[in-house]
Amino acid sequence: MARAAESEWCNLSVGIWNGAETAGGGRLLYRVLVDEALRSGVAGATVWTGVEGGRATRAFRTVENEVASNELPIWMEIMDRWERVQAWLPEVARLLRGRGVLVWQPVVRGEARDRMHNGQDPAREHTPRPAGGPQAAAGAGATESHGSDVPPLTAAAPAGDELDQMARACGLPVLSGLEVRVYTVENAQRAGRPVYQAAADVLRQYQILWIATFRGVCGFGARRKLNRPRLFQPAAVPVMVTALDRADKVARALPALQDVLQGDGMLAITPVYLCTPR
């Protein structure tokens, strides 16, 4: 029973391009979603706000041009068993329609622990695959990667029956996608511009569906230097750029993204299920 329960848990993420979007009664959409999550009984939900981001082909808000901070991207993560999340999906899709993306992390299989005991590595199928030079200086939680080749992107492709099940749950097409996280530091520069903004520009050139930047508090990466704000270096903190789209579109952008980083960041690539309610 414990093994079966473990295999049912999943991570549902909701990305809202503009945090100022409202739902019925003029209430902020993300607050309505949090209240609905509470009412639905899901185990937990967390809301994050970005410092930059938006749609690649429409309004893209940056720290230079953004005055209303509540118009920055919102990222909400929900954790629970798949059955409970599945029951809540139609309502989320209805509220989100045309204003954001729905993302599922691949479900962690219950047999992973047994495979670990047998000397096999379950992480090959279900964890982010890092790509970047050995000198990558990343944000909190990132580790050194060996070799600069983009890793194979098809090893963890979602099964067709799982995609069909999710599509039926929210009544919309669900795609096999990739999430890319770019870890760098806020004060890293490339040709006089912050590296994280240069990375976002590359993603916009490839018209990636979701792009958002989040600012950390402190952290360290491959260079083992703790990045944290100081009196004369307030921008010495980690930043993370997130990108989401179909697997083929993201794969095309990866080489250019690595060229921009040039040792000042790291990529983490994760297979996801992706839905854009319209």
From TrEMBL:
List where Low complexity composition bias occurs.
130-142
Q: Where is the composition biased (Basic and acidic residues)?
A: 113-128
Q: Which domain of life is it from?
A: Bacteria
| SUPFAM superfamilies on file | GlnB-like (SSF54913)
List the Pfam families: DUF190
Q: Where is this region: Disordered?
A: 113-157
| InterPro entries hit by this protein | N-reg_PII-like_a/b, N-reg_PII/ATP_PRibTrfase_C, UPF0166
Q: Which ranges does the record mark as transmembrane? A: none
Family to which this protein belongs: Belongs to the UPF0166 family.
Name of the protein described by the UniProt record? PII-like signaling protein
Origin species? Alicyclobacillus cellulosilyticus
